[in-house]
Amino acid sequence: MIRLEKINKSFGRLRVLRDVSLEVQRGEVVCVIGPSGAGKSTLLRCINHLEGIDSGTIYIEGTPVYRFTRDGRPMVDPDHRIEELRSQVGMVFQSFNLFPHFTALENIMMAPIHVRRESRDDVRRRALALLVKVGLSDKVHAYPHELSGGQQQRVAIARALAMQPKAMLFDEVTSALDPELIGEVLRVMRQLAAEGMTMVVVTHEMGFARDVADRVIFMADGVVVEEGSPQQMFSAPKNDRTRQFLQSILERNAELGDEAATPPSEPRP
């Protein structure tokens, strides 16, 4: 579904991504973990072309996209093609980014109507079904300021799903939420994973990564340090940097009472 080949991205002199290569299969859930500044969010933004890459190639369903080389010539997708690709790869951010003067229903309906020119009646039916899906059937006419953070984030997820994407990107979507609201957002994401949605999830929720991911990727300093199954990554990471990170974050979670916090063991000799 998604393939990255040697992606590089810098902001001025700061090199944020360094030859990052990654494949995500259809229906796969990939969780990306790592310390702040590792390049995780930039990676997602490059996949959705919210940030242009400096070099490398991004493939969506086997086709090179955005900026690439064909027959030795540099190629750039036109804006309408980029918009089409973005509609196929939905993204949910840490901040909810809802339009404050529109209701939950109107927020969900906007993109399909104005970007895809779909029928308002068809979009309304889909939006109402999505509000049911995310557990907000009673908040159809509520404005963002009338919703909790968890409810706003679920509207944001429904808004992305309204475009009927083939894959979803989640960028630390629970990090701005109070602890008691995190579970309601993770439940929606677990449901999407169970339904076979292709997902790339940047997260600090180790319990979610352990239970839901097909594969866990650890990034640090702009590179993919290690990747593997959740069992391997959380029980016996091979890289010292991975082990140190998991040790620190899982010990912190243990102090907060997270039942999923089990420090990784030392690797077998």
Automatic annotation (TrEMBL):
Membrane topology classification = Peripheral membrane protein
Sorted alphabetically, the Gene Ontology cellular component annotations on this record are:
plasma membrane
Q: Where in the cell is it found?
A: Cell membrane
Q: Which SMART domains does the record cross-reference, listed alphabetically?
A: AAA
Q: Which residues form the ABC transporter domain?
A: 2-246
Asked if Cell membrane is a keyword of the record, the answer is: yes
Could you name the domain of life of the organism this protein comes from? Bacteria
A Pfam family matched in the record: ABC_tran
* MF GO annotations: ABC-type amino acid transporter activity; ATP binding; ATP hydrolysis activity
Keywords associated with the record: Amino-acid transport, ATP-binding, Cell membrane, Membrane, Nucleotide-binding, Transport
Q: What Gene3D superfamilies does the annotation carry?
A: P-loop containing nucleotide triphosphate hydrolases (3.40.50.300)
Family per record:
Belongs to the ABC transporter superfamily.
Q: What is this protein called?
A: Amino acid ABC transporter ATP-binding protein
Q: Organism classification, top ranks? A: Bacteria, Bacillati, Candidatus Sysuimicrobiota, Candidatus Sysuimicrobiia, Candidatus Sysuimicrobiales
